[in-house]
Amino acid sequence: MNKMISKIVSLSLVILITLLTLDYFRIVSFTKVLRNSFYLVTVILIVFSSTIAICTSKSGFNKFINYIILVATTAGLLIYVITSKLNNVLYIALLCTIVYALMDMLIKSPE
Predict the structure, then answer these.
(1) Is residue 111 domain-resident?
(2) pLDDT digit string (tens) for 33-80?
(3) Which residues span the membrane (predicted)?
(4) CB distance 105 to 7 below 8 Å
(5) Domain for residue 54, yes or no?
């Protein structure tokens, strides 16, 4: 059950980050309210996914990646609040999240 929820959250993160990337490069255009809603849902899912992975994972590598994701997300959001611009720390958090989500969906076997 836990693995299935983790895979669903990972798939949702990949879809949301892809949609936000398409909006960032103006391939798809969202309204400001929808874009901000996607940002909020993405951050909530990132924190939820990382926290669950840290609490349930036995692998030190998975915990390390998720600690990096949580620290980068927290620092990036603080910098975002101060400067009102997206920053490289948030991009690092999103990149690590995509890597972990794909690893979670494709490499890890369901038990």
Answers:
(1) no
(2) 999 999 999 999 999 999 999 998 888 999 999 999 999 999 999 999
(3) 37-57, 64-83, 89-107
(4) yes
(5) yes
